[in-house]
Give the backbone structure.
Amino acid sequence: MTPLPSDDDVLAPYDAVLLVSFGGPEAPDEVMPFLRRVTAGRDVPEERLLDVAAHYDHFGGRSPINDQNRALVAALTDEIARRGSDVPVLWGNRNSDPFLADTLRAARAEGLLRLCVVLTSAYSSYSSCRQYRENLAAATEELGVAAADLVIDKVRPYAVHPGFVAVNTEALVEAIADLPENGDASTRLLFVTHSVPEAMDDTSGPGDGEGNLYVDQHLRVGALVAEGLRERTGRDLQHELVFCSRSGSPRTPWLEPDVNDRITELAAEGVTTVVVAPIGFVSDHMEVVNDLDREARATAERLGVRFVRVPTAGTHPVFVETLVDLVEERAAEARGEVVLPAHADSGDLRPSVCDAGCCPNLREALPALCGRD
Ligand SMILES: CC1=C(CCC(=O)O)c2cc3nc(cc4[nH]c(cc5[nH]c(cc1n2)c(C)c5CCC(=O)O)c(CCC(=O)O)c4C)C(CCC(=O)O)=C3C
Ligand SMILES: [Fe+2]
């Protein structure tokens, strides 16, 4: 049985941290069941599923995402111990084993009743925030009345946290250290994230807000990273935001431009190097190693364009410290203390308890935890 934290624990009142992630297959026979789970009830054509299954086949049917989360759990556990706490780090997924409901059941059986959730997704949108909150509600529902004594809080969206900006800046500085500066005029820095339906971006953010918070947060992070690069190295790269991993029906508009289309246009304009920085993701999972390292790299190489890919946050110590800082911040908030959240610009700071109606589910209204609705 895991010991419960004492009252002077930096993470009190929490008994455990719960890392919540997307999940991925780990063997060839898990690929199609995983894809059907991901797209259940959604408008994703069968050919797209077979196409995506082929991505996983290139990697032996195993996505890197679960191993990356195992490494993150270990790193978070070490960092928490370094701060003098023995609060354990649990892990549950939306789409693959270990499923959230199983993790919650096991936590409860061990007497871990007060959990602080960290999502492996930094940005605000239905897919990257509310859907995980719905998954938490569904998982507690699955446990039935037994879950009534569980407290589940969540750290706030952390894209515009100075630590997340710093780790992405650091990775960029290192990735281009070997590129000669006299080529910077013909180099383009492409910040990349997962495309989502335009309607999902339009409604992202607080219900009474302007929407488009998903894209807005990426633009802020990109601008801050490019500014950090300038400050650190004096180098000024032209930059823009592009998208990868579009799915859904071709008739539904999704965020564009696609990274491959944009590289093709840039090649025609005389760009000779693209630096691809996937700031929308926190680890080098399948959307990164396939959609960027295989597909976008092949597009660039076919056109004679040099392709440099910047690593994601992964288990970088600054990222791990940032996540534990966020848990400490959430714990202080739960204890009723006045909290001054670290934020990298004066723009939109999202609360840890989501507004009613924010980042709505446009298909059906479902219960969601960690919010006012
Ligand atoms: C915003 C966002 C993130 C970032 C935030 C976060 O991390 O949560 C993200 C991450 C990921 N997306 C992933 C994989 C997939 N996403 C799909 C489909 C979709 N993603 C969407 C959005 C996002 N997705 C959407 C709107 C769809 C359409 C269907 C639906 O509304 O659900 C599909 C279905 C097939 C297809 O691609 O068409 C797959 C296989 C993996 C796992 C990679 C691995 O295995 O290593 C990860 C981390
Ligand atoms: Fe996705």
Observations:
- The first helix runs from residue 31 to 39.
